[in-house]
Amino acid sequence: MSSIAKRGPWGIWKDVIFALFAREIRVGFNDKLGIGWAIIQPVLFIFILSFLRGRLNGGETHGIPTFVFMAFGMVLIQCFLQTFLAGAKAIKKNKALFAFRQVQPISVVLASGLFELLVKIFVSLGMGLMMYFLDLELQLSDPLSLMFYFFSLWLFSLSLGFIVGLVGLYIPEVDKIQNLMTRPLFFISGVFFSLQDFPQEYWWLLDWNPILHAIELSRYAAYPTYGQVGVSSTYLAMSVLTSTFLCLSIYQAYWKKAISR
Amino acid sequence: MISLVNVTKFYKTSLGNKYIFKDLSFDIPIGHNIAILGSNGAGKSTLFRLLAGSEYPNKGKVHCTLNVSWPVALATGIHPEMTGRENTRFIGRVNGVKDLNRYEDRVKRFAELRNNYELPVRTYSSGMRSRLAFACSIAIDFDVYLIDEVTSVGDAGFKRKAKEALLERSKNANVIMVSHDMRDIRQFCDSAIVLHQGELTFYNDLDEGIRKYQAL
Fold it and tell me: How far apart are the C-alpha atoms of A45 and A67, rounded to whole Å?
């Protein structure tokens, strides 16, 4: 008979998240394209978009190559959308696993968030490698800030997804609204334009959006010539702190009820 | 000892709260193989899930000093796209099994899956699935095994094997079981808890319990 190790709460947490994470990797890359598709799809998109915008402005957008400009937008918005969706779906998808008392909803959400993070890191590396081989100029002048913005955006997406997932257990209609809400994000988050393209008196229409801040700040961190206007890292950090705090408090208050329904 | 202390459990429905237990206190005695008997909808599965910690009561507490298995039913935690071995490893990790490789082999041998062990679970028959689920739990050293109808799917040979395994474990482990098949229950259990209208009654003698249950 196999005996069980005595584990403290941290030990259990670690084991469970690792087990779930391994399971996500195993199931997530199940089809033949596997992680390849995660890289190919945004790259295709970027090519088309940067081709279009490149025709308009001659290959350079506010002092950075249009391809790089688009690449930052696409990778980051996809990081947001996919992590958000993964976080929102995780609890429902893994409901059967809560039969194991060691598995708590937060571990499930964390594991699928970590999986998305892993995919996005691979996508970013793949993108950088591709640019290197295509001889596209790529400059990263402040990699630390870039990483900080990337992780902030990831945490922001995951905590928003977590909130939506928790609320969705009580109000199933949230699913439909969530689709409606994520669709326009593609257009208002500065993926194929910069805040600098807009006259300053209309900035208030766009600059409430932390994703826009993350994308613009990342471009600036890579290319200081891009210029950082209308966005602030403090705002981004505060949004992340607020959303994380909110999701953890909702979770703390409702998780036992949530899995007992 | 597993004890329920002032447990209230209800489910919200469109017709208001549907109470399964109201302020229930009960000690489940140790050293018995117990069948939980009750009519449909009496709350057998709910009780089961409360004991396992898969769900939490709305009020009150479930105290448990023993190592209790998860409620072993047909599909719990088994992913159809993963192989039998991968599923076993997942369950082993979650439960904190020390030696995963030995655990995997033990489950393979017990469930008699042979090469199918390396195939995705979606290709399994329901008998094979239940054998896998049962083997995953019996291969771990629990003090109490919670078994929900799983044994009813296996064939006669496997049932015999399952019983032998449980008997062998019964020196320091017990089983709590839900099944509608009285033959199954007679095979595995020696006493019964009858669940009726939110009240639990323990019968030391299984036959007495079954008689009371059938008279309900």
Answer: 11
Listed residue (B52, B49, B35, B24) closest to B144, CA to CA = B52
Number of H helices, E strands in chain A: 9, 2
Residue B187 structure tokens: 């095979």
Query: What burial class does residue A30 get, using C-beta atoms within 10 Å of its C-beta: 0-12 exposed, 13-18 middle, 19+ buried?
Result: exposed
Q: Are A216 and A231 in contact (CB under 8 A)?
A: yes
Cβ separation A100–B70 shorter than 8 A: yes
Q: ipTM of this model?
A: 0.86
pLDDT, one tens digit per residue, over B174-201 is 889 888 888 878 888 889 999 888 888 8
Both tokens assigned to A174: 């949230």
Question: Which residues in chain B have their CB less than 8 angstroms from residue A260's CB?
Answer: 55-56, 58
pTM: 0.88
Cβ pair B54:A12 closer than 8 A: no
The answer to whether B103 and B88 are in contact (CB under 8 A) is yes
Give the 3-state secondary structure of residue B36: strand
Question: Is B171 part of the contact surface with chain A (CB cutoff 8 Å)?
Answer: no
Partners of A22 on chain B (C-beta within 8 Å) are 90, 93
Query: Are the beta carbons of A35 and A122 closer than 8 angstroms?
Result: yes
At B173, the amino acid letter reads A
Q: How far apart are the first and last CA of chain B?
A: 28
User: Domain residues of chain B, as ranges?
Assistant: 79-141
Order across the sheet with B199-203: list the strands: B144-148, B174-178, B34-37, B191-196, B199-203
A260: nearest CA partner in chain B? B55
Please count the residue pairs, one from chain A and one from chain B, whose beta carbons lie less than 8 angstroms apart: 92
Q: How far apart are CA A15 and CA A185, in angstroms?
A: 36
Place of tokens 């996508």: A123
Our measurement of the distance from residue A50's CA atom to the centroid of its chain's CA atoms, rounded to an integer in Å, reads 22
Where does residue A108 rank: exposed (0-12), middle (13-18), buried (19+ CB within 10 A)?
A: buried
Which candidate in A255, A260, A261 is best for mutational testing of the B interface (most B CBs within 10 A)?
A260
pLDDT in tens, A110-133: 999 999 999 889 888 888 888 888
- Domain spans of chain A? 9-259
* DSSP conformation letters of B69-133: ---B-SSTT--TTSBHHHHHHHHHHHHTBS-HHHHHHHHHHHHT-GGGGGSBGGGS-HHHHHHHH
Q: Does A102 touch chain B (CB under 8 A)?
A: yes
Q: CB of B167 within 8 Å of any CB in chain A?
A: no
